[in-house]
Amino acid sequence: MPYAGERQPQELITCGMALLGTTQTSLSKYVLIMAHEDAPSMSTHDFPGFFTHMLERTDFTRDLHFITRTTIDTLDYTGISLNQGSKLVWAAAGPRKRQLADTLPGDLPLDARTDDDQMAGAGGGAFGDPRLFGRGVVVLRGPKHTARRDEHDPAMHALAARLAHARGLDGLPLFVVVDDPAFTAANWENFLWVVFTRSDPATDMYGAGEFTHCKHWGCTGPLLIDARLKSFHAPALETDPDVERRVDALAAPGGPLHGYL
After folding, report:
1. Domains and CATH numbers, the chain
2. pLDDT by residue (tens digit) across 72-118?
3. What is the pLDDT of residues 179-211, one digit of tens each?
4. What is the pTM of this model?
5. DSSP class per residue in the chain
């Protein structure tokens, strides 16, 4: 709107909702959408650049739009029950709001145990091994997930409360809690796989300074995503070395599957 004081996502949200309501994109959990006019040369195939653009411009008090307790993909194991979970339209438009950090502060309050933590049941020293992944994104190890399906984790709320009082986090808008930080931060393929397949938006997103106003959720500090394997998830699929060797033999020169595998 030319008369508005600041450009903000409006029709972008309509487009995001349309994507969640049509064809194969209706199976998506997360829709991240930006304004073309903010960066005409940007491509979603350049995910590091695209993700940086989103983090620089998102107003986390305003730009996260949840659809809760809705139908989700049958194959999605992160929801609150079979075929039921949540979706998120994350929209960003307008000028850059923050400069993303390329270093970690030395005093991240990950391990401090407070009275509030004890009341919440959070274990001291449970979070650690923080790594900077890209600009503005912190990947860190969390304790083994023990909460039940369709429940928030008190330890995550306690971590968000600690980060709300930390200094020097303006350039670190996103914290991701995982089981294996080294694997997750190894490359973008691992990061995208872990973060967006092992989380349900409404259940697994937390925020420093989080609030709900007229049923709209937002946060004033860093956004936190719990991308750990949950207590109700199936264990990771592991390959059988003997089966791998047998398949390799079938695909070797002279084998019946040579040229096909």
Report:
1. 11-92 (3.40.1670.10)
2. 998 899 999 999 999 999 999 999 999 999 999 988 999 755 444 44
3. 999 999 999 999 999 999 999 999 999 999 999
4. 0.88
5. -TTSSS---SHHHHHHHHHTTSTGGGG-SEEEEE-GGG-TT--TTSHHHHHHHHHHH--TTTSEEEEEEEE--TT--SSSBTTEEEEEEEEE-SS---PPPSS--TT--SS---HHHHHHTPPTT-SEEEEE-SSSEEEEE-PPP-PPTT---HHHHHHHHHHHT-SS-TT--EEEEES-HHHHTT-HHHHHHHHHHS--HHHHEEETTEEEETTEEEESS-EEEE-SPPTTSPPPP---HHHHHHHHHHHSTTSTTTTT-
